[in-house]
Automatic annotation (TrEMBL):
Superkingdom of the organism of origin: Bacteria
Encoding gene (name): mprF
Membrane topology: Multi-pass membrane protein
Principal cellular location given in the protein's record: membrane
Family: Belongs to the LPG synthase family.
Catalyzed reactions: L-lysyl-tRNA(Lys) + a 1,2-diacyl-sn-glycero-3-phospho-(1'-sn-glycerol) = a 1,2-diacyl-sn-glycero-3-phospho-1'-(3'-O-L-lysyl)-sn-glycerol + tRNA(Lys)
Name of the molecule in the record: Phosphatidylglycerol lysyltransferase
UniProt KW keywords: Antibiotic resistance, Cell membrane, Lipid metabolism, Membrane, Transferase, Transmembrane, Transmembrane helix
Localization terms from the record: Cell membrane
Enzyme category, top tier: transferase
InterPro entries listed in its UniProt record: L-PG_synthase/AglD (IPR022791)
Enzyme Commission designation: 2.3.2.3
Protein species of origin: Paenibacillus germinis
C-alpha cells in the first residue's frame, strides 16, 4: 500500500511531467521575454501586483499574530513568513516552515513546540480556506464528482471542530494541549477574524494572475481568477522543486483551461505570474535578510528539525538561540 509520502511524490512527478510536455509544446523564449517585458512596459500593473501581493502577506502575518499572540512584534511574524517564502523558492523541498517556526522561536522567545504549533495551524487554515474556495468553484463549474469534494471538505471541518472531544484524542496529553489552544482561539470571535484575514489574503494574491490576464488579453472574471489561483496554490503541496517549478505551471494552466482559456495562453499566463512570484520572493527575502539577518547555521538547523524523520523536540525546553 502506498504511503502518503509516496503518493505526494508520485503526484508531484506527474505534474512535472505534465509541465515538461506543456513546455515542449508551447514554450517560446522570445515570447516569454516579451511577456515578462510587459511587467516593465506597463509599470502600473507591476506596482499593482507588488502592492497587492505584499498586502496578502501582511494579512497572513496579522492572522498569525492574532492566533499566536500580540506580545510578539508584528515584524517578527512578517519576516518569518518572508523567510519561509524565500526558502521555498530556493530549495527543492518545501522547508520554509522550518525557518518560519525557527525565526519565531528565536525572536519571539517561544519554545520550538509552541512555534511549530502555530505555524502548523496557520498552514492547516490556509489549506482549509483554499479547499473551501476550490470547492465553491468546482460546484459552480459543475465539474464531475463535485459532491465528493464538498463531502470531504465538510467532513474535515467537522472533524477539526470536534477532535478535541474525541476519547482517543483526549488520551494523548500533547495533542490535548494543542487542540485545546486551537479550540480556544478558533471557536472564539478571534477565529472568525483569523479565517477572514486568511481568506482575504488568498483573494488578494489572485491579483497577480488578474494583472497578468489583463496584460496578455485574457477575458476572465475576478471570481474565476480567485478560484484558479486557489487551486494552483493548493497544488503546491506537491512541491519538490524550487518554488514549485512545474507543479505551479501545470495546475495554473489546467485551472485556466477549465475556465475556457486557450491552452497556450493559459501556459503563458502561468509562466509570467510564476516569474513575478520568483522575483517577489527574492526581493522580499533580501529585505528580510537585511532587516532581520539569520545565519546559515540557524537556517540549516531549523530545516533539519522540520525534515528529520524523528519528531522535533517537543518538551518545551528547546534552546532559543539554536
Amino acid at each position: 500500500m502506498l504511503t502518503k509520502k509516496q503518493i505526494v511524490r508520485f503526484m508531484a512527478i506527474l505534474l512535472i511531467v505534465c509541465s515538461i510536455f506543456l513546455t515542449w509544446q508551447w514554450f517560446d523564449s522570445k515570447e516569454w521575454l516579451r511577456d515578462v517585458g510587459l511587467l516593465f512596459h506597463q509599470p502600473q500593473w507591476l506596482v499593482f501586483m507588488f502592492v497587492i501581493y505584499l498586502l496578502s502577506f501582511l494579512l497572513k502575518a496579522a492572522a498569525w499574530r492574532i492566533y499566536a499572540g500580540p506580545e510578539v512584534r508584528f515584524s517578527i511574524y512578517f519576516h518569518a513568513i518572508s523567510y519561509s517564502l524565500l526558502v521555498n523558492h530556493v530549495l527543492p523541498v518545501k522547508a520554509g516552515d522550518g525557518v518560519r517556526a525557527g525565526l519565531y522561536m528565536k525572536h519571539g522567545g517561544k519554545s520550538w513546540e509552541d512555534a511549530f504549533h502555530s505555524v502548523a495551524v496557520m498552514r492547516l487554515l490556509d489549506m482549509l480556506v483554499l479547499a473551501g474556495i476550490g470547492g465553491i468553484g468546482i460546484v459552480r463549474l459543475g465539474l464531475p464528482s463535485s459532491w465528493i469534494w464538498v463531502t470531504v471538505l465538510a467532513g474535515g471541518t467537522v472533524i477539526l471542530a470536534t477532535a478535541h472531544y474525541l476519547p482517543v484524542i483526549r488520551k494523548i496529553p500533547f495533542i490535548v494541549k494543542h487542540s485545546a489552544y486551537f479550540h480556544l482561539k478558533m471557536l472564539s470571535g478571534k477565529g472568525i477574524i483569523i479565517i477572514g484575514l486568511i481568506a482575504l489574503s488568498w483573494i488578494l494574491e489572485a491579483g497577480v494572475i488578474f494583472a497578468v490576464a489583463h496584460m496578455i488579453g485574457l477575458q476572465l472574471g475576478t471570481i474565476s481568477l480567485v478560484w484558479a489561483n486557489s487551486m494552483t496554490i493548493a497544488g503546491q503541496i506537491f512541491h519538490i522543486t524550487p518554488g514549485g517549478i512545474g507543479t505551479y505551471e501545470s495546475t495554473m494552466s489546467g485551472s485556466l483551461v477549465l475556465l475556457g482559456v486557450d491552452g497556450k495562453d493559459a501556459y503563458r499566463a502561468a509562466l509570467v505570474s510564476h516569474t513575478f512570484k520568483f522575483l517577489f520572493a527574492y526581493t522580499l527575502g533580501a529585505y528580510s535578510l537585511v532587516r532581520m539577518p539569520l545565519r546559515w547555521r540557524e537556517i540549516k538547523t531549523w530545516i533539519g528539525r522540520l525534515t528529520s524523520q524523528k519528531k522535533p523536540s517537543l518538551n518545551g525546553n528547546a534552546r532559543k538561540d539554536d
